[in-house]
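Continued from yesterday's entry.
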Amino acid sequence: MFCVHILAEDKVECPDAGSICDGVKHLPNQTFFCGDQVAYVCDVSYELQGDSVAQCTETGEFDKQPPECVIAGEYFCSFNKNVQRQNF
């Protein structure tokens, strides 16, 4: 990707990157310009499916769609000695 900004008003801005259910997005800024990135992380007991980072491109769009957080395939229950693994 190649981002060129001669003047501040020439900067290419991307819209909001989008939120994800059962997770959060880490925003370094509230406004995204070419080259800026947003990172996604899932809540505990969830796994990320898709890319964890999206970057604002010179076209004014993010290069990837927001990922999804899905329930982890196996969950270890350490609080109950009788239950060792549980599939969801």
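--- second protein ---
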Amino acid sequence: MAKQAVSAVAVAEAQNFQTKKQLIFAMDRDNAIALRKLAPAGATDKNRLLRGSDDIPDPYYSGDAAFRSTFQIIETSLNAIVHDF
């Protein structure tokens, strides 16, 4: 798989995104809760789970097959979001 990059969400970033009619999607409930705590008043609805009501599995300690499966879940979830908008 290609090299991937991730970054933590800083408080200022989270508040800035959430006040500009943008959405932040979390991979799991723990991250969604953390993002909601960073959200300014009235913006907690802009933090959502990427997969609707289900967590996306973390493939970190697994093999390539788990990464491929997780990628497929993410791709399917993003396609559903785009379709809904």
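Confidence is low (pLDDT under 50) at residues 1-6. The helical segments are 11-18, 29-38, 64-84. Will compare against the first tomorrow.
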